[in-house]
Specification:
binds 2-phosphoglycolic acid, 8 strands, single chain, alpha/beta, 12 helices, 42% helix, eight-stranded parallel β-barrel, TIM Barrel, 255 residues
């Protein structure tokens, strides 16, 4: 069994209101023992980070944002800097999610700048990569994912690479109910770890957590969690229900 501590993060996206977010966080705290050995992270909409952070106070559940800007301050209307996220209690930030790559035009170069800024501010970036259905069907998965990992993490020191989390999220599996098979996911996770080994060292790559994301549910998580290079999950839809989120976290918990 690898020594990597499993990590499961809930990406709430643009869902839940303040009261619902507070209640979900409080439930996660109350039932945290159900998945004691899994690192847990909740990523609410930015406007609720303070509220959810307060509900998590005193627990070891981490608070994460869904995005951050790459500059520390300035005239960037509507944006939030990594240091501001740290200021409200964040320890993590999701970067380069496929929805942001597609809807907001975030390129690997942009994700790279954001990743560097987040690390400099002391956050743990959860850097997302993944191919579209068209790319998979054209046999380009390896190329696409390798390019995204190399581009998003270019120029990072091995020390920084060791701190971050990579999330492999095939775009065709996000919010579609279509999950990658455990073998498909494992193959890409192993590829990502090989590339991390080239960018840092194999020993460092062996310590980096790689999450799978895309329609992870309590009834499909067990086989994913059993794969040697799948170290946790980035969960969208199922993270909005405490029962489902905790069941997924439990599936990754080490005995
Ligand atoms: P999903 O989303 O679990 O709803 O497929 C995952 C994600 O986008 O992080």
């Amino acid at each position: 069994m690898p020594a990597r501590p499993p990590i499961v993060a809930g990406n709430w996206k643009m869902n839940l209101d303040r009261a619902q977010g507070r209640a979900l966080a409080a439930t996660a705290v109350a039932r945290r023992h159900e998945a004691a050995s899994t690192e847990l992270v909740l990523c609410p909409p930015a406007v609720y980070l303070d509220t959810v952070g307060a509900a998590l106070a005193g627990s070891d559940i981490g608070l994460g944002a869904q995005n951050a800007h790459d500059k520390p301050s300035g005239a960037f209307t509507g944006e939030v800097a990594s240091a501001m996220l740290v200021d409200v209690g964040c320890r993590y930030v999701i970067l380069g999610h496929s929805e942001r790559r597609t809807l907001c035009g975030e390129t690997d170069a942009v994700v790279n700048q954001k990743t560097k800024a987040a690390l400099a501010a002391g956050l743990v970036p959860i850097v997302c990569v993944g191919e579209t259905l068209e790319e998979r069907e054209a046999g380009r998965t390896t190329d696409v994912v390798a390019t995204q990992v190399r581009g998003s993490l270019a120029g990072l020191s091995p020390e920084h690479i060791e701190k971050l989390v990579v999330a492999y999220e095939p775009v065709w599996a996000i919010g579609t109910g279509k999950v990658a098979t455990p073998a498909q996911a494992q193959e890409v996770h192993a590829l990502i770890r090989r590339i991390l080994g080239e960018l840092a060292t194999p020993a460092v790559a062996n310590r980096v957590r790689i999450q799978y994301g895309g329609s992870v549910k309590p009834d499909n998580v067990a086989d994913l969690a059993a794969q040697p290079d799948i170290d946790g999950a980035l969960v969208g839809g199922a993270s909005l229900k405490a029962d489902d989120f905790l069941a997924i976290a439990k599936a990754f918990a080490r005995a």
